[in-house]
Amino acid sequence: MSVAEYVYDQDKVSTLLSTVIRNNGNEKANNWLQQRLQLQQQTGAIPQFNQTFTAIPRFTGKEMIRISTTESEQLQALLPSFFVQGWTLDRLARVWWLLQLPVTNKSVYLEVVENLFNAAEMNELAALYSALPLLPWPEEWTARTSEGIRSNIGVVQEAIMLRNPYPAKYLSEPAWNQLVMKAIFTDKPLHLIIGLDERANAALATILVDFAHERWAAGRTLDPMQWRVLVNFVGEANFADITRVWHSVNSTEKEAAALVCAQCHYPPAKALLATDPALQAEIQAGSITWDTLAQKIIK
Amino acid sequence: MCGIHDLTEKDLQPLTYSPAYLNKIKGMRFFDPHVHMTARTTDDYQAMADAGVVAIIEPAFWLGQPRTGVDTFRDYFSSLLGWERFRASQFGIKHYCTIGLNSKEANNEKLAEAVMEILPQFIYKEGVVGVGEIGFDDQTPLEEKYYRAQLELAKEAGLPVQIHTPHRDKKKGTQRSMDIALEHGLEPHMIIVDHNNEETVKEVLDRGFWAAFTIYPFTKMGNERMVAVVKQYGSERIMVNSAADWGISDPLAVPKTAALMHESGIDSNDIHLVTYTNAVKAFAQSGQINEADFDVAANIDQSEKFNGSSILRGGQQPRIDKNTTIIR
Q1: pLDDT > 60? residue B308
Q2: CA–CA dist B238, B209 (Å, integer)
Q3: Domain shared by A108 and A131, yes or no
Q4: Is B2 within 8 Å of A223 (Cβ atoms)?
Q5: pTM above 0.90, yes or no
Q6: Which of helix, strand or coil describes residue B249?
Q7: A5 part of a folded domain
Q8: Per-residue pLDDT for B227 more than 80?
Q9: Distances in Å between the alpha carbon of B129 and those of A230, B146, B279, B297?
Q10: Which of A146, A161, A188 is the endpoint of a domain?
Q11: Contact B252, B242 (CB under 8 A)
Q12: Is residue A193 assigned to a domain?
């Protein structure tokens, strides 16, 4: 039976996460989590709930989790774009623990979780933001997400920005644009932002072009991946900029410009791409994509 | 990765300029168990990392300006567990803290009551290695009341206690601090008595407590005196810290003292004990210190996620050459 407050099959996800935790935890950690769960179900005490959330790493340790392909596929089917790969066991256990908080009273639930955010240390914050796609009443967490984007702490920014499907689904356009710009300013691998293409918009395209002008004026470089956001917004106003990137001596920048030209619908851009048939052919053959570019940028 | 900072290997290397004392302590690792980094700049973090400081403890303290509400305490505690911890990690330094109500602000009873209420939310957090710094300033009845209450808290949580001993009437204040701790049933090995001097050290050590010394110009210990203390009392249960804060102080006090000890012919093992091992051992009784973490310095959460050292480097800060007039 699934609970209406959740927008996915919460029971199944909770059970699956619990299995992954059990497979990764040692006996002591698993027993402790089980005891805490029983106690929680019996008493429903909030201080007990908070204390468990805080104490989790003391019992689970902080090893990187292993997850089987089957489990990973099951999770994808239940919650598309929700990733736990690369998480440490304490983070996974904390996210699972949040799913054990009763949703019988909405205001109590919101208050408890907001309090966890307010008193959280660095890794607790990362776990809380990682859990956003799993929380009930998803529309209630948008202000909190925007607040998290303002954080200066790298692991917190990453928990929200990278491989997290929540922001693309629920943030307003200004908040989304702030997320993308903050990711650029803090050197995040942009291709790991879920919804980067789908949530691209004209306002963001303009902000990015202005940003490029600032960087160029200062004699600084840009992440070539940012041009990807312009794909559906190439026109007279920014074609000179795309052309400038195309003429860059840096091959990743030129490839980025070429990909924009190949994917946009602006005829002069198509003509520009045609001036380099070899590059055009590589894009057509799929040997240059945003993913291959991302790999080059990371190296 | 490419982007805003465009770091190269060169940007991450220590500065070519290095003070002569650094040669004497080359390759040594230091643990500064008392330093108020919220009051310090990134230059200090870089200098500390270059001098071999791998981990620090930031005790909760007062801020120079008295606080008027519990929320500013909450935010301060959160910043010790959040932003400051991350800031340190950017320089490869592992940041721990102790959490407590300091003695000065214990004198504001209404505020102190409110702070006591929120302390249990913080002392169980990851990386909280003790209750501190607590104890006496003016040795008022209110200071005693909250000192006692926090000793009980530490006992319940199984955490070490970091005791601030007073500037004025120090000897008596130090004795009282120890008497009261024993009265509450705490074991001396769980108590780090801080800011010792030549007058207090003997009794602290004789009674089985840890004796910490703060190398802080003008008001606390000088490091020449510290050398003499170690020559006289040895290295057992003694540790050195900087307590650097917003006053005239020196975040390099621990490595500098190690260099001076080396110059003065103190055995390397003893130097290692008083500038690293003893502090690790005392505070590791919290169960919250893992020396292996010093090497990965808090970047553990992002280290393997994207398969490549370039991402790890993304969390690090580029070096800036301070000897040029050009700023880029």
Answers
A1: no
A2: 9
A3: yes
A4: yes
A5: no
A6: coil
A7: yes
A8: yes
A9: 49, 19, 11, 16
A10: A188
A11: yes
A12: no
Question: How does pLDDT run across A57-115, given as a tens digit for each residue?
Answer: 999 999 999 999 999 999 999 999 999 999 999 999 999 999 999 999 999 999 999 99
Report the residue from A125, A221, A224 with minimal CB separation from B6.
Answer: A221
- The DSSP secondary structure of B188-207, one letter per residue, reads GGGEEE-S--TTTHHHHHHT
What's the confidence (pLDDT) of residue B233?
98
Tell me, what's the pLDDT at B14? 62
Residues from B contacting A (CB-CB < 8 Å) are 1-6, 74, 78, 81-83, 85-86, 90, 118, 121-122, 124-127, 287, 298, 300-302, 304-306, 308, 310-311, 314-315
What's the CA gap between A10 and A190, in Å, rounded? 29
Domain check: are A175 and A220 in the same one?
no
Residue B98 and residue B59 in contact, taking contact as beta carbons nearer than 8 Å:
yes
Q: Given this model, what pLDDT does residue B4 score?
A: 52
pLDDT band, very low/low/confident/very high, at B15 (cuts 50, 70, 90)? low
Q: In this complex, do A152 and B86 lie within 8 Å of one another by their Cβ atoms?
A: yes
Does residue A46 sit within a domain?
yes
Q: In the A/B pair of chains, how many CB contacts fall below 8 A? A: 96
The answer on A88 and A38 residing in a single domain is yes
Asked whether residue A142 falls in the same domain as residue A244, the answer is no
Does one domain contain both A145 and A13?
Answer: yes
Tokens encoding A287: 């040997």
pLDDT band of A13, cuts 50, 70, 90: very high
B244: Cβ contacts below 8 Å, ≥ 6 apart: B35, B36, B39, B40, B44, B216, B250, B251, B253
Domain count, chain A: 2
CB contact under 8 A, A121 and B121: no
Residue at a domain's end among A143, A160, A188: A188
CA B17 to chain centre: 27
Confidence (pLDDT) at B311:
36
Q: What is the pLDDT of residues B95-119, one digit of tens each?
A: 999 999 999 999 999 999 999 999 9
Sign, Cα dihedral of B46, B47, B49, B55? negative
Interface residue of A49, A123, A129, A150 to substitute, partner B, most B CBs within 10 Å: A123
For B176, the 3-state DSSP assignment is helix
Q: Which residue has the tokens 């692991």?
A: A155
Asked, for residue A195, whether it belongs to a domain, the answer is no
pLDDT, chain B, mean:
89
| A62 and A8 co-located in one domain | yes
Least Cα distance to B61 among B33, B31, B103, B119 occurs for B103
> What's the domain range around A206?
200-299
Is the same domain home to A212 and A132? no
Q: Could you tell me if A176 and A240 lie in one domain?
A: no
Contact yes or no for A241/A256 (Cβ under 8 A):
no
User: What is the DSSP code string of B6-55?
Assistant: ---GGGGSPPS---HHHHHTTT--EEES---GGGS-HHHHHHHHHTTEEE
Q: Residues 7-46, chain A: which have Cβ within 8 Å of B?
A: none
CA distances from B287 to A59, A177, B158 (A): 11, 42, 9
Contacts made by residues B261-269, CB under 8 angstroms, sequence distance 24+ = B261/B226, B261/B227, B261/B230, B262/B24, B262/B25, B263/B24, B264/B227, B264/B231, B266/B227, B266/B230, B266/B231, B269/B235
Q: Which two tokens stand for residue A272?
A: 């520009």
pLDDT of B174-200, one tens digit each?
999 999 999 999 999 999 999 999 999
